[in-house]
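Project outcomes to date are best conveyed with an example. Our students and postdoctoral researchers have been running inverse folding experiments weekly, and each run begins with a structure described purely in tokens. The record below, which covers 217 residues, was selected by the lab manager from last quarter's runs and is presented without edits.
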């Protein structure tokens, strides 16, 4: 399973890269606003740090506007992937971009039918938002299972990026289902490492090592 970082904060990306757990990055206009830097500048900085794909999202509404933005974003770095909203115009744009060999990530996906349409249009990635579905009392993870089953049935190449991840349980459940990628906020990535019994075990082993050393003197 690949881990993407769902952030535009350089320091968080740098830390994840150093730990070898950053296979790519996803951004959106809200994350760019939070990072508080110029869009092009921050994307270029991220694209230099990360070997994998970096998803960039615009605000174009018509297929023509989306393609125009995509061409601009693609000129920023070779590993840029274009995030396209799950609309009819967005799906038209995905077809046009795929013909130009520009990689796409269909975003704001909340149903299996939307994911099916995205795959049929030749999307490189699809991003179902599990947390936002859970927020409205729907089952985000069931959607991931349904999409994976549909993609397996027809051997679609589109990869599933589990997005709107809120906690480590989302990541583990997505991995059990076999989703290709989870895009995680830095705070969730941090929580994946920790267990109190690991910390307790280390303290005990160190104490016993010291005790043993003393009895051997
Ligand atoms: O990248 C899009 C997605 O991960 C957003 O997550 O937490 O704003 O629902 P969230």
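After processing, the design step wrote out the following sequence:
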């Amino acid at each position: 399973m690949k881990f993407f970082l769902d952030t535009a904060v350089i320091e968080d990306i740098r830390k994840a890269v150093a730990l070898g757990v950053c296979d790519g990055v996803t951004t959106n206009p809200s994350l760019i606003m939070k990072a508080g830097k110029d869009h092009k500048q921050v994307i270029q900085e991220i694209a230099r740090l990360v070997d994998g794909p970096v998803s960039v999202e615009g605000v174009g509404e018509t297929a023509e506007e989306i393609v125009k933005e995509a061409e601009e974003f693609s000129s920023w770095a070779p590993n840029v992937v274009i995030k396209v909203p799950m609309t009819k115009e967005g799906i038209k744009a995905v077809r046009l971009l795929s013909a130009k060999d520009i990689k796409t990530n269909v975003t704001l996906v909340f149903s299996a039918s939307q994911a099916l349409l995205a795959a049929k249009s030749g999307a490189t990635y699809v991003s179902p938002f599990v947390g936002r579905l859970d927020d409205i009392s729907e089952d985000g993870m069931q959607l991931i299972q349904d999409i994976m089953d549909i993609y397996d049935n027809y051997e679609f190449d589109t990869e599933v990026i589990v997005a709107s991840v809120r906690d480590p349980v989302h990541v583990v459940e997505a991995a059990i289902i076999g989703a290709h990628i989870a895009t995680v906020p830095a705070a969730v990535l941090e929580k994946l490492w920790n267990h109190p019994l690991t910390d307790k075990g280390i303290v005990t082993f160190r104490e016993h090592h010291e005790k043993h050393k003393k009895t051997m003197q």
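Residues 6, 26, 28, 129, 131-132, 163-164, 183 surround SN-glycerol-3-phosphate (CB under 6 Å). The domain at 2-215 is CATH 3.20.20.70 (TIM Barrel). The training component of this project remains on track.
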